[in-house]
Structure formats: C-alpha cells, structure tokens
Predict the 3D structure of the following.
Amino acid sequence: MNEQNDVYIPRSEHPRIVIIGAGFAGIYMAKALKNKPFQVVLLDKNNFHQFQPLFYQVATSGLEPDAIVFPVRKIFRGFRNFVFRMADVLQINTHENSIETDIGNITYDYLVLATGSTNNFYGMSDVEMNSIGLKSIRESLDIRSNILQNIEKAVQAIDDETRKKNTTIVIVGAGPAGVEMAGAIAEFKKYIYEKDYPELSNFPIEIHVVEAGPKVLSAMTEKSSRATLVDLKKLGIIVHLDTAVKSYDGHKVALSNGTDLLTASLIWTAGVRGQFPEGIDEGFIVKGNRIEVDEFNRIKGQESIFAIGDVAYMQTEAYPNGHPMVAPTAIQQGEHLAKNLMHTKANWRPFKYFDKGSLATIGKKRAVADLGKLHFRGFFAWFIWSTVHLMSISGFKNKLRVGLNWMNSYFSYDKGNRLIIRRYKPKKVEHETYL
Ligand SMILES: Cc1cc2nc3c(=O)[nH]c(=O)nc-3n(C[C@H](O)[C@H](O)[C@H](O)COP(=O)(O)OP(=O)(O)OC[C@H]3O[C@@H](n4cnc5c(N)ncnc54)[C@H](O)[C@@H]3O)c2cc1C
C-alpha cells in the first residue's frame, strides 16, 4: 500500500533508480537502462525535453518552439519498468532514501541528480529582474516577444530616444550562446527588419555584445576566437571586451567602461550555476553551485546518490576545474553511470570524458569548428555545425521540421516565426519597464 502522501508508482521486484531531470544527462541515462533489471523513475518539472543549443533560434524567430522540445513520454514508449512523473523535486532526505516533490514523496534505492544549471546573475538583482536569460524554452519565447514588442513600440514612438531604446539590443556574454544570438539578430536585422519595418529605416537595430573577459568564445582556440570577432564586426555588431555589466534598470545598462546604453532588451547569457533541490550537504557544494562528485559521479560522502551533467563537479587531472558544462559531458556521464550501475561496485569504471570538439555559428555560412588539431571556418564549419545539431535533435519529426525550416531560410532568407504569441511581461510589473 502507498502512504497517502506517496506518488503512485507501480510495485517492482527491481531496485528503483530515481533520476531527477529529463535533460541530456537524464534522458541518455534512462535510455541506456532500457529494459534492464531496474525500475527507472524519471522526474521532471516539465513534460518535455528541451534542446538548449537551439534556444537562440526560437528567440530570434528562426524556429518555432515545438521543433526543439520533445515530449518525454514519447521518447520512452515501449520501455518496460519505466515510469515518468511530471514533478518538481523540492527536497532530498538522504537519511530516509526519499525525496519530496510537489506531487508527493518517492523513495529510491539509487538517486541521480541530473538537474542541470540555471542563469547566474552573480547577485545583481536589478539585472536579474529586468533582463531575460536563455535557459528555457519559455525564456526563448520571452526574448522573441520582447524584441518584437519593442520594435512595435519603436514604430509608434514619437521621439528618437524611445525609438533608439527599443531598437537597441544588448547581449551579455560572448560564449557560444551570446555570439550565436548576436549573429541571428544581425540576420534578422538584414533580411526581415529592413523589409517589415520601413518606418524605421532611419533606426537600424543596434546590437551590442558585452563580455567581461578579453576575448569572445574563450573556451575555443585563439584562431576561432579571433575569426569570430572579425565576423561579428563584419555583421555590424558592437563588441565590448574586458567590460562588465554594473547595473540595469530596464531602461539603461551601465557598463564598467563608463558607457551607458539605452535599451529595452538585455539578454543575459553571461553565466550559469548548478541547480538542485534542498538537502545536499553544503560541504559538497563547490564553485558555480555544482555538486562535488567522485570519478564514478557519486556525490562525495554518499553511497547511492549521484550527480551527472551540468550540476556535477568532477575534478580530474585532465579537468582540474571540472568538466565543461556541455551536452556531450551530460550524455557521456549519463550513459557511463548507467553502465556502472549494471555491474557490482568492484567493477565500476571511472568516468573519462571524450572531447569531440567545439562548434559555434554566427549565421548562415559563418561558423568556427575546433575538432582536435583541426580547425575550420566559414561554410564548411557551418555545414558541420548544422549536421551535428540536426542529428542531435530528438525525434524524426523534429529533425525534419528543423531541417526544412533551415532549408527554407537558407534559400528565401526569411524567418517565418516572427509572431508574438504570448506577450512578454517584465518580471516585476510594478517596476514598469514598458512604455
Ligand atoms: C543557450 C544555450 C546554448 C547551448 N549550446 C550548447 C551547444 O551548442 N553545445 C553543447 O554541447 N552544449 C550547449 N549548451 C549546454 C547544454 O545545453 C548543457 O550542458 C546541457 O543541457 C546539460 O545537460 P543536463 O542534463 O545536465 O541539464 P539540462 O539539459 O539543463 O536538464 C536539466 C533538467 O532538469 C530539470 N529539473 C531541474 N531541477 C528540477 C527539479 N527540482 N525537479 C524536477 N526537474 C528539475 C529541468 O527541467 C531540465 O529538464 C547550451 C546551453 C544553453 C543554455
């Protein structure tokens, strides 16, 4: 019998593995456990898996949201001993081998935290309140609505200052998410804005990228970083290096170099921090709010609780600052932990990351690729980027949708999804940032 407050989960003769998070790490781990002698309980606060690398395309009207989110239940059709529950996990009770969620409690034999990361605003509450991050499909849609709503405001504005504020877009962070976003907005400006908004011909969109470090794409090679900076400038994007954001009130962003930019769109891609429910011993929470794990992804001091993907901090000789917070790390750790759990502890193998390389694109035919010692730039790098991303998206229908969309915009230079389906409202309504 279930206790009254327990989530209903069918009885099973197999040990129960509860995985929190249906991101890359959780999905790939659960897939690797298909029909194995475990009961796999996968939990996520959403009923869908999100393909984060293409959030920026939804935000810039390139793709519709349905193309890059995928229903979790569909992924696991036909899996035996598998249970999905849409639940927000609130608390882990390590002494009782149980978790508390918004729909009830669940016990576990093994617990896996695959809860990913969230925006890191480094304690700047005004920036958090007034900017929009790029960490969920909802935020991607918020950015799209925000940009399009602001342009509509610019059209009907009667003074130049209001027009300028609503047509200036500031992106914070020059990692892959920031530069990809900037490149896509530059394409929007060139192929859509100039045609759709003839009233604003004297007010071209102004795109700024603000980066606290000395270069763009700092995790890539010097060659890729320099090439990308050149491309960004060619696209008319203004790049502020060695510059941090000091404050943003919804109207004006103050930069550490003394510049103030008037803008109604601040897009935050400048950092992430691990996220996880309450109940983890503070002693094991390290830099970037990640959880310290051993070489088997086991949370230090715990026998049966693991962390994989962005939330896990595993220090190794090759990665003294933890592994990169990217999809391949999450996928490999998920699959590796599944394999280990199928064996006795004595036969567990330590995790070893296989770095497949890095890619970034800033628009049609413009991309950089670092693949081992090989470095590519331009059309070929862009072709590799497109192929890799298309292959990685879940589901044939989604692949087809994205592929057709890209083909259409490649030849027609159009972006079909410039729709304000749901209006963006600033987080703090009483602090009305809108005109
Ligand atoms: C804009 C952007 C672009 C990116 N581009 C690339 C790229 O080009 N290449 C690349 O390799 N990587 C890229 N990344 C990074 C990559 O997406 C992440 O490293 C990867 O998603 C991490 O996988 P994960 O499974 O650890 O976490 P996630 O994929 O974030 O999944 C975590 C899941 O946990 C769920 N969750 C969290 N907390 C709870 C809770 N308390 N209860 C229930 N559910 C919960 C969330 O809903 C989510 O579904 C990008 C990231 C972003 C944001």
